Amino acid sequence: MRNFTNSTAKKILANEISMEVLLQQYPEYQEEVLQEISVLRNIRESQIITAILDKYTVSAKIAHTKIQKSRFNETTINAFLPDVIKARFAIYLLEQLNIAVSSKTPENNVKFNLWDGTILQKLLFRKGLERKPVSLGLFKFWWRFVIHKKILMPLVNKKGIYCFYSRAFIKELSSLIGNQSCLEIAAGDGTLANFLKSEHINCQATDDYSWSHYIAYPSFVEKADAKTALLKYTPQVVLCSWPVPKNAYEKHVFKTPSVDLYIVIGTKNPAFTGDFEAYYNADKFTMELDEKLSSLILPPSDENAVYLFRRKKSPSA
Question: Does the record carry Methyltransferase as a key word (predicted)?
Fold first, then answer.
C-alpha cells in the first residue's frame, strides 16, 4: 500500500496535480485501471462508457467523502486516495484508448459522439431532453472532458433550449424572489418555473405557444401572451429567460404597476436576446447586471447575463 502525505492528498482532491505527474508517480494505478477496463470491454459498446463512468465516479465520490470526513486521517487517506487517482486515470485512458467512438455523421447533420453524448446526458438531463438542475461541482469536473463543446448549444437550440440552470442559480433566484408573487413570461417548456417549485417558489409559467413547432408545451405552461398574463396575474416579480431579440412583449413588463422586480436571463448582446430599447427606456426602473447570477448559468460564457430591473422608490416613500 502506498503512503500519501496529507499535502499530496489535498492537492489530488483539488485536482492541483497534472495528469502527466500522476502518471509518472503512480504507474501501478494506471495498470490496474487498464486491466479493469479490459474486463468491461465485454459489455456492449453502447453501454461501456456509462459502465466505466459509473464505476469510477461512484468510488471516487465515496473516497472523497470518507477522506474529508476523517479530516485527512493518514490511514483513511492511504486506503481511499487510490480510488480518486484511478478515477482520473480512467477518464484519461478512455480518451487515449478512443473507446469513445466518433460520430460518422456528415458535417451538415452533426451530432455528439458516444463519449460526449454520454457525459452530457448524465450531466444535464433527467431523460431525453428533459433538463435537470445541474451540480456546479460535477459540471466543472466533467465539462473539461467534453470534446465537442461548441456544438452543444446549436444542437439543443433546435429544441428551444438556450441555457442550463445550475442548482446554485435556482437557489439564488429563489432567495431573490422570496414570498413575492411571480410570473414567467415566454416560458417555453416551463423548465425554470418547474425548478423553482422544488424550492417552494410558486411561479406561474406562461407562453403564447408561438414556438410550438420547436417546443412541446406541458400542460402547466398556460397559453397566454405576456400582456394578457401580466394583466391577469399582476405579479410582483416577472422572469423571462432568453427573450427574443427586439421582441414586442417585454415593454409590457415595465408598464405593469404591480411589478417591482423584473429578472432577465440572456446575453449581453442585443442581437441574441432582449428588447434593449425597452430596457434603456424603462425610466421607472434601475438596471443591474448581476455578475454572480450570470456566472451560475451554464455553459459558462462571458456573454451570459442576468439583468435585474428594480422599480425605483418614489421620493415620498
Answer: yes
